[in-house]
Prior knowledge:
This protein is an alpha+beta fold.
Amino acid sequence: xIDPPTTRIPPPAFLASPAxxxxxxxxxxxxxxxxxxxxxxxxxxxxxxxxxxxFPPAEIAARLTAAGLRVHETGLAHGTxxxxxxxxxxxxxxxxxxxxxxxxxxxxxxxxxxxxxxARRDFTMNALSLSATGELWDYFGGVQDLAAGRxxxxxxxxxxxxxxxxxxxxxxxxxxxYGNGEPxxxxxxxxxxxxxxxxxxxxxxxxxxxKRLLEAxxxxxxxxxxxxxxxxxxxxxxxxxxxxxxxxxLAEIGAPADPMLRFDALLTHGTAAAARRLKASNEEVQRLxxxxxxxxxxxxxxxxxxxxxxxxxxxxxLLAEQPxxxxxxxxxxxxxVNRAWGWEGPDDAAWARFRSRxxxxxxxxxxxxxxxxxxxxxxxxxxxxxLLAETRRWWWxxxxxxxxxxxxxxxxxMMKDIHAKALPEG
Length: 426
């Protein structure tokens, strides 16, 4: 079947990279697809390269192996292998048609029809394909949509969403990254009508999409649309009230484009619990827990921050209990929340001075360990732990400035008091 290209463009640089070039050479008729094509057309950095080919997966693997590439069967049931050359991976997938979909999984068959494969993709800008020589196929107006900043489903939006419920979340991610102006009304209406189906998604896929959405340079508009359509409260509950306000405020004050910091801003409280429900990593959850504690410590200090405080002793106490990065997170979030809701508090300059002091202040470390107590005659056990804890509390209350010798002296004094109390009277 003749399938003439829509247009021809100068071949983008990623096509000349060793691995994509070798894959396309080994698979006659293969084309680059997906994000690499989309990003090349918008002059964005190309991170990952995907290729589609009109062969069954076993034949693809055999041809790539014969061409000297290492092949890993990373998704063979769905027609996907990963080819690696010089440490550079390329995902290669057979052209497919959907036989059965249930909103979470699809049963597929292989095809040689490029338009049929493109028709099963989510958005028009993702249905583009590009040959090694720059021939570009655009079956559904993806180039025009990409130029206009319009994220549009291929065909009927409700049908695409019924095939895979995750596409609702992907829509907001693409809207944040590529959208410009008013969102596509048909897409928004279909998403609003399908909110109930989001409960069927695996929490791991939801978490992955949240993080990828929040990596966008400015996700506030997309998150506002998630609020308006009911998607955000459906996923995170009513505590997500004001999420887009918080994200907008973070952007206005110049906060880092950190997806975890932004996720923390989506909820008024309970972000760590929400991350646990979504099966975030232990490291991610602990970061949110530590940020909450740091925010609790910073909250009463706001009057002092506003007038140049807190003093150095107070700041050292904070740093002795919380990592500097979590204190910085908490400061950004508190400043953003104040700004979002018009609450009184330190101005932007005061918050900036406070963060500068956190970054410049050496992190204090309690100078004693168990061996110091043993050297003074304390036996290992619960009593040693209690004595060291009491010494640390004394060090902390004093502004974390006492050195090891002073702390040993304090520990020795406490031991003398204990021994004196233990002596019989008279």
